[in-house]
Amino acid sequence: MKNLKLLLAGTVAALAATGTAAYAERGTDGDLKILFWQAVSTLNPYLSGGTKEVYSSSMVIEPLARYDEKGELVPMLVTEIPTIENGGVAKDLLSMTWKLKPGVKWSDGTPFTADDVIFTWKYCVAPDGGCAQKAQYEGVTSVEAPDPMTVKITFSEPKPYPYSAFVGAQSPVIQKKQFENCVGAKAPGCTSANFGPIGTGPFTVKEFKPNDVITFEANKNYRDPAKPAFATATLKGGGDAASAARAVLETGEFDYAWNMQVEPEVLATMLKAGKGQLVTSFGTQVERINLNWYNPDPKLGDKRSTKEAGPHPALSDPAVRRALSLAIDRSIIDEAGYGEAGKPTCNIVPAPEAYASTKNDSWCLKQDVDAANKLLDDAGWKKGGDGIRAKNGARLSFLYQTSTNSVRQATQELVKDMWSQIGVDAELRNVSASVFFGGDPASPDTFQKFYADVEMYTNNFDGTDPEKYLAEWLCDKVPNPENGWQGQNIPRYCNPAFDKLVGELSKTADISKREELAKQLNDMLTEEGAHIPLIHRGSVSSHSVKLDGVRMNAWDSELWNVADWSRKK
Amino acid sequence: MFTYTLRRLLFAIPTLLVISFVIFALLDLAPSDPTGDLPLTIPPEVREQIRASLGLDQPFLIRYLKWLQQFFINEPLNIFESLTGWQIGDGDRMRVLSWATRSPVVDLIVQRLPQTLWVVGLAYLFGVMIAIPIGVISAYKQYSIFDQIGTFLAMVGYSVPTFFTGVLLIVIFSSYLQWFPSVYDTNLRVTDFQSFVLQVKQMALPVTVLALFNASQITRFVRASMLDNLHQDYVRTARAKGVKEKSVLLIHVLRNSLIPVVTVIALGVPTIFSGAIITEQIFRVNGLGQLLITAVQGADIPLVQTLTFIFAVLIVLFNLIADVLYGILDPRIRYD
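^ inputs. structure came back:
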């Protein structure tokens, strides 16, 4: 009788399992072939921080919660997202509690517990470890486990937006058992763990060839018995963006290729083969031109671009800053260099939608050369014999630098041409990306030193909350020799009113008030001309027409829902 | 000859030490940074900690001496241990670690060697095999149509860059005709005839591109050297003695002409190991060339340092081999 019951129970379970398997079953769709034209160096995102490492490791290790394609939090390893309403976030904003999903197993079959979560925090904040994602755990004073299925995070000060630690692809949970002896200075030595982390995700690492290729297998212990649909996955690296696009769109050798930074017309020709399609998602990336508020005159030597150098002779004039923005036709830049991967913007916080201001779109999104010329005329900038405007010996001739990249150089040419229509000259310069973004305090060519009048690059923020990002324009974040040129206030913008408003934002918990404040801050930056926002850049990838289930996501890893991908039959 | 070789080998040691120091100093002076590729969302304080964890906060000389110790003592000991299975000391030695992958550099190089040797090595071999007959016929029938076409093709092969021929072949044979894959699969293992065919197919395009390039260089040497010898007195003597034209050409002239060619070929061998950076990148062969270029771009200094130094060793070594070969092949040359 007992046996019969068991048998019946078994049949019911089997029926339940086949119920979901009606449209999908684990491992039935063969090999998923993914192409990253920048090869993956390691599968431990805590030791690398590069986008390619974060994305590729997201197939194996998971955070407690992720952002979906709309930028909303979805629980992964927990039962729900803690909020003040459901009691998960304390009223004083000093702590939060995550309830772990029961029955989740690591790919080696051992149970996933709160101990692993605590260990992950300890692993990243350990001294001498050089953890690249330390900023995710900023303000966390302790992570505790009241019971094996509960994680309590305590903050040093009230956190109105507490979703950072263990949220998003940047801070996945790693297994304590595997990394126990790899903490701090010992972290880099654990090659086999770093190359093959044990995870809770849909795939496990079978073989990892650094900077070349990763072979994955479906995780037998994945919590959804019907997923992933693919039995194996291969993630090949190397080459360049154009040939990666060709491998998906034209030759069809690969199912998915990441980051199609290719000229729009080249992609259009490849798309004609009909083998693949492009997917775009807009996150928070904005290509901008920073205007230097300090004087970068080389004659000033080491003082240039610092407070001691004094204000910029031309760019300190608000009329000049406004005119430079008015003269630019953003839609032409978008068409020529970005296509589907961009749209014109006047915001530095372009998304999520609730945070995106529209206040300045009316004057800023449209090119108005006449208005720009008039602004400069009225401000007393007179055209000289060479057609370049000048006032009191200061000429509107700017050194315009950016990193080496064909789209950026094309944009430079266009902007130079547009500025020439208002009597502004630009001298173009480009610096190799590893130097420009390298931050070596000894190099004069870094974007932090800003030994130029204007410079162009892209920046963004992780997740959906812009508080930390907007705090980058605080007065005390200006890079200077004392702080080793570290500091994110690259334009050297400084406004006490702005600082005060940021302080207010960091104390406000009410979401709609936060949105309002963030918009105000964003508008201040655009109106006062800390920078000229140009293009809201999306992430573009391509996938085969035979691949189903791709939900392009700019808020988290692009491969965030790889468990749901399948092959069309 | 033996004392000469020994003397040269001993002299190579200070040379290589100086080379290693120069490479290290140059890389240190270069303004690139290992955290330069990271997203800007990673704040400056964290970048500083990453740099410290890589040992970049230490003075230049200490870092150089550490590398010397790791490369010349720890790595050889490790290789020795893994070959013999013996353990020397506690076995816990600091190896040369790559900054990007955080794994031992030597392991990376060993992993990359097979595909580089297969693709680049085979292309070199094919290049030589094509170059010699073309060079010989071109010289023998100087200014004939064959010579003109050969010269033209050599010039094209030499002057058209591989990033053009490579992409051209991909567009024709991968995109349009779909005969060959455009992406090299480093996971493919040759176990049966079918996988062998796949391997040949994926090697076809990169090997063609590189073989064309190599052949066009060497064929000019062969032709020039043949022309020098064809007008020598001993050729006239051989012909006057009534030796068959085939023997004159292939035995007397070719053998003598090959003496300088062999040295040129020997001197070119190190370039096989340094890979063909561009071709490997285009076809995603991911061999040593691609390893070097990603390391350079990512400012992975220990990897660049070790790779360039190994290339330096190979160049010094093959220079010596070329000199010794010259002495063996040409009895007129004696070093002692």
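The mean pLDDT of chain B is 89. Residues 35 and 315 of chain B are 32 Å apart (CA to CA).
thumbs up if we can close this ticket
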